[in-house]
Amino acid sequence: MTLHQMHATLPAFSGAGERRALLAGITFLEVTDSDRLEVATLARWFEEHVVASGCMPRLSVVLEPPAGSVALRPSGAALARANADLPRLVDTARARVVGALRGLVTVPSDDRFLRAAIFLGRVRRHEGRWIARPEPTAPLSGIVLSLFAVPLLSERAFYERELCVCEVCGRVSFDRATSSRGLCHVHAARVSALHAVTQAPASRRRAAG
Ligand SMILES: [Zn+2]
Question: Which one of 36, 72, 104, 151 is CB 3.0 to 4.6 Å from 18, fit for a cystine?
């Protein structure tokens, strides 16, 4: 699925701010789903989706305790170091984001990250809408989760109906029709194919295997 196709399936929100925050969160998960992520890519995501929308000032460093910190605009020897430190930090942040979102689609659902984001002031009401305003020392995962919190708090019914978080690959998607909110369309198809194989007679199973 291309970026464009995926964005085309994002639910329509009444507010541009909510849609923009959701796009920011989804894009973070997309750009960090790579073995070759470079710090320049993360810095570009931060600039386009966090700074340009007024959520946060431009930061020189992002944090993800205890994985450490990474400079967003390093030069010279610091660039190699930042790129070397990046995978651990981003993997930690991404796992926390996906884990928190997955809580929303489990039974019973766990929305503690939404309450934490409100409690910490990372999302707040402003002129009748939710906005993300993480503090500059917020961990990267906290920044991303505050972006997701904006559409989730604004239109709670939409995620209760449509949000899917894949337990295999961590993909976040929206699908009103699905029966497997814990699997993306790719892994749901694989699971049902596997199910078909294991339900088949042994002779067919050998042939298929
Ligand atoms: Zn998946």
Answer: 151
